[in-house]
TrEMBL record:
It comes from the Eukaryota. InterPro entries: DEAD/DEAH_box_helicase_dom, P-loop_NTPase. One of its GO terms (molecular function) is nucleic acid binding. Residues 35-107 form the DEAD/DEAH-box helicase domain. It comes from Dendrothele bispora (strain CBS 962.96). Pfam families: DEAD. This is DEAD/DEAH-box helicase domain-containing protein.
Length: 114
């Protein structure tokens, strides 16, 4: 019996980096090292608590998985057969309207419906 692919494997990290470089054109240097493992956990549907300073890329931890699911569904021939979902829902709770507006702006730039 074949084991399912997991995002926490090295192939998962490579695929994640491929999707980011292909789909997020302003991210020319790829992900920050501290973002890779949390993103892999999110994509594996594992629980995660991530604490970092302002402007360190926490929003990427829920925006990039949406982009990954959308990209692999649109171009399955380009990527290994990782489990992805057609309809992904993310609920974001923010303490301020300013932060909420910032997140909505980032998501719209990524062509994600809010």
């Amino acid at each position: 019996m074949a084991f399912p692919l997991r995002w926490t494997d090295s192939l998962g990290a490579d695929t994640l980096e491929q999707v980011v470089l292909r789909c997020i054109t302003h991210c020319t240097n790829g992900l920050h090292g501290y973002q890779v493992e949390p993103l892999q956990l999110v994509l594996n549907q594992e629980d995660l608590i991530f604490i970092s300073g302002t402007g360190c890329g926490k929003a990427a931890l829920f925006i990039i998985p949406l982009i990954v699911h959308r990209e692999i569904l649109a171009h399955p021939e380009l990527y290994p057969a990782f489990p992805v979902k057609k309809n992904v829902v993310v609920v974001v709770i923010t303490p301020t309207k300013g932060l909420a507006n910032s997140i909505v702006s980032i998501m719209r730039l990524s062509h994600i419906h809010t």
